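Worked problem 6 (solution included).
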Amino acid sequence: MPGGRPPTIGRTPPAVTLIGGVVADSPLLGESDVDAVAVPVAPAVAGDEDEGPQPRRGAASTAARYGIDLAELAERAGLTGAAGESFVVQLPRPAGSGVSLPWAGLPPRIVLVGIGASTDTDLRRAGAALARASRGLRRVVTTIGDDAGHSASQAARAARALVEGYLLAAYVPPSAARKPPAKPAADLVLLGRDGTRVGAAVDAARSAATATWLVRDLASTPASTKNPEWIADQARRLATGPGFAVTVRGPRELEADGFGGILAVGAGSASPPRLVTVTWTPPTYGGRSGSGRHVVIVGKGITYDTGGLSIKPREAMVPMKTDMTGAAVALATVLGAAHAGVLHKVTAVLPLAENHFGGASYRPGDVLSMYGGTTVEIANTDAEGRLVLADALAWADATLDPDVLVDVATLTGAATVGLGKQYSALYGTDEALVAALERAGTDSGELAWRMPLVPEYDEAVHSSVADLRHVPQDTHIGAGSVTAALFLRRFVGDRAWAHLDIAGPARATADKHEVTEGATGYGARLLLRYLTELS
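Solution. The predicted structure is:
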C-alpha cells in the first residue's frame, strides 16, 4: 500500500467467553482486567407501576449487588429500552483508603443497552451497540440475552444473535494512518451462559463474523494495492489445508479457453485479468451414499471500475474499489464453509479484472465471443460486471457440474433505486433455491427481496448483430436489474440458479447497528446460513 503498510487480510474477531452464573455471585467482576459490565434495558410495559425503561434480569442482579438504581439511571439518560440504545455510566472510584462505596468491587463502567423485544434483530442491534460503546477496553462482561428464553434452543439463538451483532460492529477497517482508530474490546464474556448448544451457537456467530470481516477487508483495500493478481494471491494464501484446491488462470489460459468477456473487460488495464477457483471438498462428500451437494458460487471481481470508455463521473468512481465485493463474498463463503464443517462441496469462482481505459479497451459496438461461443453485442462498457459473470457462469455450467449455481455481484444501480440499502435483489430459476436463500437472508439479518424474471422483458437482451445484447436497446423497458438477470440466465444452462444483486447493501455511508461504514460484507452470512441449513 503506497504510503503505508500492506493491509492484513483474514483478521480474527475478538474473543468470546462463556461463563455460568449470575452477577450476584460472580467473582469475575472483581478481576482487574474487567473494564465494564453491560446490562440489558427493556422498554416499559403498559400498566407497570413505573412506566420507564425496565432493567432485565441481569440488570436487576447488578443493581441488587451494588445498590445502584439502574432504572433511574436509564430514565435520566433518556433511554427507552429500544434495541440499539446505549449509555455508559462511569462509576466514581474511592478517594482514599478510608472510603468505602457500595460499588467499589464493580468494574469502572456500567453500559446500559436497550434490547427491545429481544428478537434476533433486537439482540443483534444490542450486541452492535455494546461493541461501539466498549471500544478501547480490555474485557467486557454482559448478561444481555441470558433471559431470552428457558429452552436451550432459545438461549443458543439469543447468544448467536448477540455475539454476531457484537463481532460485526467491532470491525475496524485496515488503516495506513499513523494513529489508527480504537480497537474493540479484546474479550466479551457472556455471563450466565454455558452448555454445548450455546457454545455451538457462539462458534457459528464467530464463523459468520469472520467471513464478513474478510469481505470487508478485501473490499476496503485500495485499488493501488488490490488488482486481479493480488486477489489471486490472497486466495492461495487463505485457502490452505486438507480439502482445499485452488486454480488460477492467467491471460494465456483465458485466451486459449475462449473467455472473451473477462479478457475484453480487462484489456484496457495494465493489470491483466485472472480467473480463480477455490474448492472445498469435505471428507464426507460423495462416497457410496452420494452424500452432499456441489454448490458453486460465482462472484463479480472488478478490482476497480472506471466505466471503461463509457467513463463514470468522478463521484461515482470513488467507491469503485468495492466493485469486487461479489468475489470477496464467494471466497469468504467457501473458507467459512470449511471452518463451519459444511457437509457440501463448495466452489468459489472469481472472475477478476480491472475495468480501465486505454488503447486496447473494448468499445461500445464491439461483438464479443464468450466462453462456450455465445456472441454478445456491447452497448456500454460500464456494464462490465455481467460480462465477466457470463463467462464464469458458462464455464461453471460446462465444467463443474454444480447441483446449485449462485452468483453474487454489485451489479446494477437499478437494484439500489428499487430496494435501497437494506435489501439485495434476488432472482432465480428454482423455487426451492430462491425460497431457501430468502429464508437464510431473514435468519441472518442480510435481507433479500425476491424479484421476477419478467418474460416480457426478455426482448431487452435481443441483438440484430449477435446472439445477445448485454444492455437494453429500448430504454423505455427500464427494470435494469431485471434485464441484467435475464442476460445472466442465458449462461447457466438448466442448472438450479440464483442471482443476488447486492449493489445496495454492499456499501454503507455510515455505521448503523451491525453494518459498518464503507464495505459492509453483505452476502457472506446469508450464503453461509444457506449452506449450513442445506440438506
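Discussion: The longest strand covers residues 345-355.
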